[in-house]
Fold each of these.
Amino acid sequence: MSPSLEALRSQLLSQPASEETYPFGPEVMVFKVAGKMFALLAWQESPMRLSVKAEPQQVLWWQQCYPQIGPGYHLNKRHWVTAQLDEALPWETLCRLVADSYALVVAGLPKAQRLALTPQSRQ
């Protein structure tokens, strides 16, 4: 069974300091951290589509391993992938895609913003 909208939304919002926005209209949920996008969810599509950031070498790997994952839809194909969220794509894979994208965006933030997101790293 494909993931529910509620489960996906919960997973995306479980990332520290993530926020849900709608800059492109109500049909696309955009998830950001510190004002930077880490995921886009076309929730009204059937099946839903999730776009996330990835390292360029990971982009190719994801596409080779999963037929449901392709180049970023209307995004930079070198740095984004889009997954068709059908029942064949494992939940664990979706969670990894989200976590990797979030980590990649956070890594690109200025040091002060990164430290504010991960208080334990100040120790």
Amino acid sequence: MSLIPRDSWSDFHRFFDHAFPSIRSVSGAGVFSPKVDVLEKDTAFEIIADLPGVEKKNISVTCHDNTLTIEASTIRSEEATDENKIIHKERFEGKIMRSFNLSENIDPKDIYAEFEDGVLVVVVPKLESTRSGEAHHVEIS
């Protein structure tokens, strides 16, 4: 009986991780890029990020120079003891980070986020368009 889980899909993903390291989810020194969905609605953009195993107190959402950054960290304290030892580990531990370039039609002060059941939803409201649909005649001097 094997105690190390094995399935063909994870082997398939591992093949691509090694063959094409530039498209891996893990980048650099243990920083993981979470899976996200980005939705555009009439009045706002929504960024939905999966952050399993992360506590709300360990999440930071910032917006600086029209770049929205989601950062989080997760640490599991599963120390090996005399009675049990870790023989296989797949769950991620460490820093999680993802950044998004935002358009000019947002106000960073209006951004808000909700976190429930390991899912972070960041709502980025759009500013009202100041453009009118009317043509503007420019005088030539």
Amino acid sequence: MLRFLVLYTALALGANVAQAADLDALKQGEMASLVTYSKPLPVPPFTFTDDKGGKHSLEDYKGKVVLVNFWATWCPPCREEMPDLNALEKKLGGDKFAVVTIATGGSNSPAKVDKFFDSEKIDALPRYYDPASFAARAMGVLGLPVSVLIDENGHEIGRMIGGAVWNSPDAIHLFKTLIEE
């Protein structure tokens, strides 16, 4: 039994390192600025809320590749990339992939987020909140927007600082490759 456990652990760790190396090869065009790591990083536990005050965490998405986007209604690059994030979720969201948007900071009331989502026809993304920026601080977010790529095991495998064209062919190829592995 111990041999099996050691072998399984070694294979799992090897797969994670291979995944990180493969991810580097996928950083083309619009995804060239994606920061990747030689080994997946642990993600600290944190929670965020929905508009009814319900608590959520990344545990809700365990088993999926997740793109966590920290944004704010007052942030022009955040607002600019939101339609692409919406299109990405519509195209690939499901059992293996999800885009999770978290409005961080106290100025992002549900009313402001609703108004922005409605005006831009953002209809596929969750409306999550981090009013005291606890989740953003836990993830080391210093400016906005920041998008963190989480693998199906709950580890950080990439990070985009600044806006991106998330619905580009380069992005779609990267995410399809990750979820099909």
